[in-house]
Structures are given as structure tokens and as C-alpha cells.
Design goal:
It is a single chain. By secondary structure, the chain is an alpha+beta fold. 27% of the residues lie in helices and 21% in strands. The strands form four sheets. Strands 3, 6, 8, 9, 10, 11, 13 and 14 form an eight-stranded antiparallel β-sheet that branches. It has a three-stranded antiparallel β-sheet with strand order 2-1-15, covered by helices on one side. 40% of the residues are buried. The model is unreliable at 1-25 (pLDDT under 50).
């Protein structure tokens, strides 16, 4: 094993061990490193679909956590491909995820942390309007189909407005007015102006574990009709429009130094003290966003000029 690989694995073990101390039967999650690759997400989804009808033992988020356990949370296709192949074979032989995770003291932490992010992404769903049921990808890319975008992994980059800090989200560049859709369903908990995020929408998941943050929406008409705190939204529903507002104490002001983009963020909230302040947990969404790009909903404008999503609109069963 190369020195750099041993050092990185050792660092991961030390951090994971610190996180795992003082567990009660469930881990106390204070920090999450979602280091999964786009390849691993796509491969685990393919395996999930293949095994869904024949075996009830495979679980998408657990499969990703299993790979993280085997690779020290350092995802690499050559390694992960072998481990996933063995996992699928073991599940087909009748083994359970609990058996495969074994007695590892890191298993509970990895299953809980990756599960918090990925559990709603893949599973059973029901199509809105038709009632048709299915299984597979049930969350979607945050920009509507038919609109260009560009992005790179900018999580953790420095920011200086107001105070020096790290960028705790994922910026997706696009055109002003591009419809923004809810990646996951939930309840709108924030809808208005913020000096950092400009016009923004915050949505809390139904299980209260995830808070999705969509910021820098367009000037003058940032939100979809009827968008307000307390509204229930479904995956793929139009919630607002891409813009370039924020970084201003004055409301409805455009950023002066940035191109139009969506700030797309995901916060994990395992306990009340993690909701606001220094204990907040935000995750890098780059790989997940690339993965979700395979499911984009169309949102053409109606006669009233409002964009409305078409195609499969989902919610979990």
C-alpha cells in the first residue's frame, strides 16, 4: 500500500473513530464526509434495479456505505467495482446487509451518514396524477430540462462577503430565468431574502433529516406562484427561477461579481443543535448532482407565463 494511501486511510479511521465514540445504539453523527463518486452511485443504482425483483436484501444507500467501509471512504472505480460485484453475489446467495457489514465499529456511522443523504434518492415511488407505481430514481436534478448549465466541485472554496468562510454548497451556472425545481419533496421553511443568498427557498424533508437550500434566485420575480413558507412541494415541482441576487444588505439586488447561478445546498440535521450555528453539517453535492443529471423534468411556460413541470412527478411510498 502506498504511503499516501496509508496516510489517508489512517486519517479517515482516526476521524471516524472520534465520531463513533459515545454511541448509544445509534451513532451520534457530528460530521459527515460524503466522498462517494458518480460512478459508484450509478453502479449501485444499476445493481438496485437488477436485484429489486429477485432479492429484497439489496439497499442503495447501504450499498454505497458498504463500498465506503471497504475502501476507507476513498472511492476508486477499480476497487469499488470488485467490492460491488462481491456484494451483489453475496446478496444473491441470501446474505443480508447486516451480515455483510459484520462487527465493524464504523458500519453504523457509515450507514447512518450515507443513508441520511441517499435514502430518499432511490426507492419505491408513485407518479403524481396517474397513480402508477415503480422503483428507481425518485429525486431529480434542480434545473429544468432544456436549459444549459455548467458546474465544477467548488465545495469548501473561500468566501469573504460579511466574513471569511467556506462555501458550503454547490454552484450550478446557468441562464437567468431557468426554472428551479425541488430535488426532493418536503415543506418550505424559508422563502424570502437573505443578505448572503439573495432570494432563496429552503425545503425541509418529510423525515426532517435534510434541508435543501436554493439561493441567488432572480431579481423581481424569484419564486414560482404560490411559493411560501408552509407550502408542501413534491420532487420536480417548480419552486423558483435562477438568477444572481445576494451579497447585499439591500433587498432585491444582483451580485456584482458573479455570473448567474444556483447555489444548491444540502444540510443534514440529526439533532436540534445542528440546525443553526457552528454545529451545522453541510455536504458536498458535486457527485450527487452529476448523478441526478440523468433525471431532469421539463417545465414549459403556461399561458400565464408560469413554468410548470411535466413528466414524472414523484413522491415516496
Amino acid at each position: 500500500m502506498k504511503k499516501k494511501t496509508r496516510a489517508a486511510l489512517a486519517a479517515f479511521v482516526i476521524v471516524a473513530a472520534a465520531v463513533m465514540c459515545a454511541f448509544a445504539p445509534a451513532p451520534e453523527i457530528k460530521w459527515v464526509d460524503v466522498a462517494v463518486s458518480e460512478w459508484a452511485l450509478r453502479a449501485c443504482l444499476k445493481a438496485d434495479k437488477e436485484l429489486y425483483e429477485s432479492s429484497g436484501g439489496f439497499n442503495f444507500s447501504d450499498a454505497v456505505a458498504y463500498l465506503a467501509l471497504k475502501n476507507g471512504n476513498r472511492f476508486k472505480k477499480s476497487t469499488d467495482e470488485k467490492n460491488l460485484k462481491k456484494l451483489v453475489a453475496d446478496i444473491k446467495d441470501g446474505k443480508t446487509m447486516d451480515e455483510l457489514f459484520g462487527e465493524s465499529k464504523y458500519a453504523a456511522y457509515l450507514r447512518a451518514s450515507y443513508g441520511a443523504v441517499l435514502r430518499p434518492i432511490v426507492g419505491d415511488y408513485e407518479e403524481e396524477g396517474t397513480g402508477k407505481k415503480g422503483h428507481g430514481l425518485r429525486c431529480c436534478f434542480p434545473l429544468a430540462a432544456g436549459h444549459w448549465y455548467n458546474h465544477y466541485d467548488d465545495f469548501g472554496s473561500s468566501r469573504s462577503f460579511g466574513f471569511k468562510r467556506k462555501h458550503l454548497g454547490h454552484d450550478i451556472m446557468g441562464s437567468v430565468g431557468t426554472p428551479i425545481v425541488a430535488t426532493e419533496g418536503g415543506t418550505v421553511t424559508e422563502c424570502g431574502w437573505n443578505r448572503y443568498g439573495g432570494w432563496r427557498v429552503g425545503i425541509r424533508s418529510d423525515d426532517n433529516l435534510r434541508y435543501w437550500y436554493y439561493a441567488h434566485l432572480r431579481k423581481d420575480r424569484p419564486f414560482a406562484a404560490g411559493m411560501q413558507v408552509g407550502k408542501r412541494v413534491t420532487p420536480g415541482e417548480v419552486i423558483g427561477y435562477l438568477g444572481v441576487t445576494g451579497y447585499s444588505d439591500r433587498e432585491n439586488v444582483n451580485l456584482k461579481s458573479c455570473s448567474p447561478h444556483l447555489h444548491f445546498g444540502l444540510q443534514l440535521i440529526f439533532s436540534p443543535e445542528q440546525e443553526k450555528g457552528a454545529k451545522e453539517i453541510w455536504v458536498d453535492l458535486y457527485a450527487l448532482t452529476r448523478f441526478l443529471s440523468s433525471y431532469r423534468v421539463r417545465a414549459p411556460k403556461g399561458e400565464d407565463g408560469e413554468a410548470r413541470a411535466e413528466g414524472r412527478r414523484l413522491w415516496s411510498l
